[in-house]
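FAQ: What does the model actually see?

It sees only this:
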Amino acid sequence: MDPEKIFLTYYYVNIKYNVYLRHTKLKTMKKIFSIMILAIFITGLMRVNAQTATEIEKAGKSCKPVFLVAYNANGADADKAITIANEAKKNLKAASVVIKMNTTDAANSNLIAKYRLAGAPLPLILVLDKNGTTAGGVALKDATSAKLIDMVPSPKTSELIKALADGKSVYIVVYKESMTSKKSIVDNCAVACSKMDNKSATVLVALDDKKEAKLLQSLKADPNAKEPVTYVVNKSGQVAGTYSGMTDVNTLVAAAKKAPAGGCCGGGSGSAGCGTKK
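And it is asked to produce this:
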């Protein structure tokens, strides 16, 4: 074959091959670029959706109560709920956090189940205690800054609802420092707890603690009591027994194990004002 024809043939084939390579590489690079963009988008979306749980966890570690605004659509109602939550944050004396949660985000499904939001009227504002326990909630139509602040638990109420959320019964000992039998009664409750296989807890509340005025009122505590009073709250949040002074350990245990009665508050509500007195 003519060397010139061979050269031209080789040159032509080489050009075509290089064009093919460039075209193939371009298509491949476009595919790779599209995949990278999609991966970045998905990763970013996952981070945004996971941000709610992360923020709640962060608030818990900082011991800050949370005003959690749950909504299923952006708009005026969601904005109004967020505004009310921010007002509560501003007016609450202690540090707190406002967190938004879109219930339509699949990444929030665990939180929706945890806070029992399926079928709830939205927007809804939940108040989470500093230990992460749900302290209360209110739908937008009934929500006010004052109501939200009122739901934030006092220190001792916080201990109470945390124990209830953990499935424990609670021995609440209301006392004055001047009461000489306080230590014996507290020790008695500790023995009762051990007999309950640590499925109970003891919460001490001073009668003159102004921070606990609401809790003391719900217990109908007598400000003129001469001896410490033990309120036994079963794991459903009901006061199953009220005992003044030293009480037999087995009596305390029996009251703590008492089955829930109908028509009273449920566990985790933070209210201990129902039940029978003895």
